[in-house]
């Protein structure tokens, strides 16, 4: 699965809530329980907006022969409609190219836990639960090479120029602008994403911060998508540009693969 990291133009806003934490404490808080708490805020907001616009289809549990999830067609069946309370696990049906989610139903015992297809859960209005489980699975896949321990976090910050003293003993409020940029980038890349999206990344950055950002982009081995009005910055760090001007979209340049082990 592709993992994507999105860094908003107000990325420092997130750090403002954690000025009295050290960078290590921030990482431990943000990714505790194999969930990205910053990412969950975005998921919850998008899911709520989507659920408000969509009509929810009701399903009920039929116990006639074992247990089966069926769509409601009558008022009597709608009175027995169930709602997902939580998702416990996920697995993939490769032949059918779909995913199943292990669901615990509200007001039902654990004996009625069952596997449900993704499409059905979305129809039931469980978008938030589905996306949250997807996010958790993506994080687990991205963290196979490291754990949420002080040792691994120190090593991760070290790759971004944040030394052990700064990571473990310096409060975020005491860091320079450039160091804060490094903390934001390190946190966003903790999951080992394949693609990083930077939304107006040069906003609110001093020269130190801009230099740190440029260096991080150059060294990142995955794909980088930048949304920016800063032509000088984008010209310096990108090979391909899509420019929207007066309602017209045009392309300049071409992306290149800088991987040394890729055959041309």
From TrEMBL:
Pfam families: ABC_tran. Residues 80-138 form the Chromo domain. GO terms for molecular function: ATP binding; ATP hydrolysis activity. InterPro entries: ABC_transporter-like_ATP-bd (IPR003439), ABC_transporter-like_CS (IPR017871), ABCF (IPR050611), Chromo-like_dom_sf (IPR016197), Chromo/chromo_shadow_dom (IPR000953), P-loop_NTPase (IPR027417). Keywords: Repeat. This is Chromo domain-containing protein. It comes from marine sediment metagenome.
């Amino acid at each position: 699965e592709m993992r994507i990291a999105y860094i908003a133009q107000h990325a420092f806003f997130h750090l403002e809530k954690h000025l009295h934490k050290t960078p290590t404490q921030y990482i431990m808080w943000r990714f505790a329980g194999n969930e990205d708490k910053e990412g969950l805020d975005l998921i919850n907001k998008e899911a709520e907006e989507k659920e408000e616009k969509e009509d929810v289809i009701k399903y009920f549990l039929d116990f006639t022969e074992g247990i089966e999830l069926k769509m409601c067609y009558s008022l009597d069946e709608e009175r027995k409609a169930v709602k997902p309370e939580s998702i416990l696990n996920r697995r993939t049906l490769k032949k059918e190219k779909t995913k199943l989610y292990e669901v615990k139903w509200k007001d039902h015992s654990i004996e009625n836990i069952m596997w449900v297809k993704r499409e059905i859960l979305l129809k039931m209005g469980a978008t938030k639960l589905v996306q949250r489980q997807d996010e958790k699975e993506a994080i687990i896949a991205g963290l196979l090479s490291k754990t949420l321990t002080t040792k691994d976090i120190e090593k991760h910050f070290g790759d971004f120029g944040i030394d052990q003293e700064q990571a473990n003993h310096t409060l975020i409020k005491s860091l320079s602008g450039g160091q804060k940029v490094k903390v934001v980038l390190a946190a966003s890349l903790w999951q080992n994403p394949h693609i990083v999206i930077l939304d107006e990344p040069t906003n609110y950055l001093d020269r130190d911060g801009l230099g740190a950002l440029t260096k991080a982009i150059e060294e990142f081995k995955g794909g980088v998508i930048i949304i920016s009005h800063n032509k000088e910055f984008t010209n310096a760090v990108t090979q391909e540009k899509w420019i929207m001007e007066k309602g017209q979209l045009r392309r300049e340049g071409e992306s290149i693969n800088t991987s040394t082990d890729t055959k041309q």
